[in-house]
Amino acid sequence: TETYREFILQNKHLFQDKTVLDVGCGTGILSMFAAQAGAAVVYAVDNSEVIYKAIDIVRENKLQDKVVFIKGEVEQVSLPVDKVDIIISEWMGYFLLFESMLDTVLYARDKWLNDRTYVYPDVCSVSVVAVSCSEYWSDRVDYWSDVYGFKMTCMRNDMMKEAAVMFVDPDWIISSHSVLKKFNLASVHSTQLNFKATFTLAITRTDICHALVGYFDVSFMAHCSNPFHFSSSPVEEQTHWKQTLFHLYEPIAVKAGKHSVNCIHTKLSVIELANMICCELH
Predict the structure, then answer these.
(1) Is 90 a catalytic site residue?
(2) Are the CB atoms for 79 and 49 separated by under 8 Å?
(3) Could you count the other beta carbons within 10 Å of the beta carbon of residue 200?
(4) C-beta neighbour count of 138 within 10 angstroms
(5) Of 18, 105, 113, 192, which has fewest CB within 10 angstroms of its CB?
(6) Which of 178, 218, 223, 225 is nearest to 200 (CA)?
């Protein structure tokens, strides 16, 4: 949220006297930033009950003449205008695309936006890195091999199929980072979000590889006099999106200077995705 605030308030020329659409407005914080930056009107859309709290918040801050709330799904609602000048949204899900609102933002872009280049954030990427996490593996995975003397293999197997959303210790990283996909919201189509990515990670430390970790980067670039960027990488300041850890079925011994070739299919559900990650050492 802090990055959104800085982007909006340090790029007031984008919002001054403009009609703004806030997709998935939540408590209305982005809408209020836009109003503060000089927007003529902000249409704040959300389908959850929190919108009623947002209405009270906006009234409390005396911005009710600037922010207009519309309850419902973006794909179903009508706006009082045919077009808007700018779209803002905190649409990102974990590993960027899972449980995100990106499809909804793209729908709003195509239906209402005057100029497709005024949707923010506008540049996004997803990346992965290999990690070694022996203590975590022992506590969360190997635990099921001996529970008070009993084997619970089925529990271990179920856990291995699920990605873990968590804060990853930067010291776990044992490879280079690889960008799986980068796209611009001004031009990307929803069908392009279903992709298969083959990538290479250079191993930087001789160790045991237990998992791959996914994270994302987003930027506010187009038309900005002051561009902004933030990342959910484990080496950056923590965000509420954390990182997404994909377990390997069996840990792999790796050596510095070698490479791991992997494949990810983002069209699958996150459980299927965790199941599809594979490694081949060269």
Answers:
(1) yes
(2) no
(3) 12
(4) 11
(5) 192
(6) 178
Integer-rounded Cα Rg, in Å, for the chain is 21
Please give the DSSP secondary-structure letter assigned to residue 12: G
Please list, in sequence order, all residues whose beta carbon lies within 8 angstroms of the beta carbon of residue 143, skipping any fewer than 6 positions away: none
From 219, 205, 125, 122, select the one nearest 170 (Cα to Cα): 205
Query: Cβ of 83: how many Cβ atoms within 10 Å?
Result: 12
Residue 38 and residue 12 in contact, taking contact as beta carbons nearer than 8 Å: yes
Query: Of 73, 99, 236, 280, which one is the catalytic site residue?
Result: 99
Q: Which amino acid is at 256?
A: A
Confidence band, pLDDT 50/70/90 cuts, at residue 271: very low
Strand 164-166 versus strand 243-254 pairing type: antiparallel
Token pair of 17 as six digits: 């006297």
269, 163 contact by CB (below 8 A): no
What is d(CA 254, CA 281) in angstroms, rounded to the nearest whole number? 8
> Could you give the angle at the alpha carbon of 21 between the alpha carbons of 20 and 27, nearest 5°?
110
C-alpha to C-alpha distances, 127 to 200, 201, 242, nearest whole angstrom: 11, 11, 13
pLDDT digits (tens, 9 = 90+) for 85-120: 999 999 999 999 888 999 999 999 999 999 999 999
CA angle 117, 181, 241 (to 5 degrees): 85
